[in-house]
Structure prediction request, 525 residues.
Amino acid sequence: MIRQGAELLREGRDVSESADVCVIGSGCGGASLAAWLAEQGRSVVLVEQGGYYTKEDFDQREVNMLAKIDGGRGLHASEDVSVSLTYGNNVGGASVHYWADSYRTPPDRLLEWRDEFGIQGHSAEALAPHFAEIERDLNVFPATDAYANKMNVLVERGARALGWHVERVPQARKACRASGHCMQGCSYDAKQSQLVTYVPRALAAGALLYADLRAERFEFRGRRADTLVGRVLDRATGRPGGPVVRIQARAFVVSVGGYGTPDLLLRQGLKDSLPALGEHLFVNPCPMAHALFDEDIIQWRNIPAAWGIEEFRLARYQGARRVFGRPATSAYVEGGYLFMPNQLQPAMLAAVLPGFGRKHGELMRKLSKLGGTICWIDDVEPGRMRVDSGRRRIEIPLSGGNGERLRDAWKKQAELLFAVGAKQVLFGDAEDTRIESPSQIEAAVRQLSIRPDRNVLAAPHPSGGARMGSSARDSVVGYDHRVHGTDNLFVSDPSVFPSPPSVDPSLTILAFSRVAAGAVAAALP
Ligand SMILES: Cc1cc2nc3c(=O)[nH]c(=O)nc-3n(C[C@H](O)[C@H](O)[C@H](O)COP(=O)(O)OP(=O)(O)OC[C@H]3O[C@@H](n4cnc5c(N)ncnc54)[C@H](O)[C@@H]3O)c2cc1C
Prediction:
């Protein structure tokens, strides 16, 4: 059953519920866990602050959909406005916006998490059966040629010409119509988001879903979270309305995403006992490069990424030195990012392309011939989140190892774009740096000013703000996803990762959620 805000506001009465498990957040981390526990016969209440929208609501109009389903209506940014924070605010969470790239966590990253961060119970062997099951549930397959739009074809061709390792990107799709509107919510239910996979499974197994309900406060009895207090939101304004919903449960699972979870936990006053809360925040900042070609590219058709370049996923350092989480200025050589074709629809392109007035208009008139690429930086300089006077503040450093990776990513993007015939490459920065030949790349990239307000960087993959570890001194949850110092409060989302997974995170979140579901079930009487 689904209860939505409009109905609760109309009734105007406070509500009380009780369940075995209350799961907060209906994205990859929450919906999947809710489904698995409900299917085991547990009573589950799933709480989601965003609205319940279905394919009929996804009208393929960018601006409408941004306002409806994007967190902060697509306008949230880091504290110094250098990075745009992209996340979901709807039943199904960010998976309703996502590109459906579905990578298993690379074994090298899981080893690093074990060896450098001591993570237990989340090895490649432990996660392998979960990955296999999730891939079946989400119909994951390597993108075939039919899904490669012109930009994808160029990325594959360029990578092969430059000798870079390029692979078909695993996709979570079924009967995809290749409309290109993945980020606005799939109008055909083809993209296998949580909205069409684990949320319906949870409901079919008897879970109760509250949409438009913001979790605000936990009431504790000693080490046990006893009740969650939530406020119904008015969808039109996003503001809390009248009714209060109180949910009592034996266990609570916080899955409100990489930006939401540290925020919600910080608001419970847990920072003093858990100093790592809100620290170690990673976001995979994404630098883009645009390019004008003689031919039509029409980047907004078909799926975003059928081919991905894996050559630079791991950073290379001089000698054998491996560095994580520490500035490696002298040792860094190149890499530390996943490299993809970019896909933006016209309105978003208008927002991110450089310049104003006539200059901007000239670019917009050539939009069909504009291609582009994007990289997810495997960031090594952690950011942090604070909640200050009720406002969330996020700091994301662009200096040190992050800056080196950003610069190298722009360099490699320009190299590839020229290799496949670009006539002009644009870095999209405030200075509107444009170059017309490969000989100009080195100098142009060296001069790029990587500072707040100068670049367009998106951040769709937050993680780490409630990281996993053995002690409350430097982590927030244990290896069983339980918040240190509590008996029944768990976290199931990328906030628990000790560092970014080095690939798009959804499958890692889902597999970790499987481990969390086991721990929650074991903690129930
Ligand atoms: C445009 C875009 C493209 C992406 N493409 C890919 C991709 O191709 N492959 C990939 O692997 N990943 C991709 N990602 C990232 C991926 O979608 C997310 O990492 C993943 O979906 C996050 O899942 P989650 O469960 O951690 O959080 P979310 O999906 O963010 O879910 C958290 C939910 O909690 C709700 N919430 C927040 N606060 C509260 C509160 N106080 N009370 C109640 N509810 C609350 C939110 O509304 C949200 O629905 C993309 C992301 C974006 C934005």
In short: The chain has 13 helices and 23 strands. The CA atoms of residues 29 and 493 lie 5 Å apart. The first strand starts at residue 2 and ends at 3.
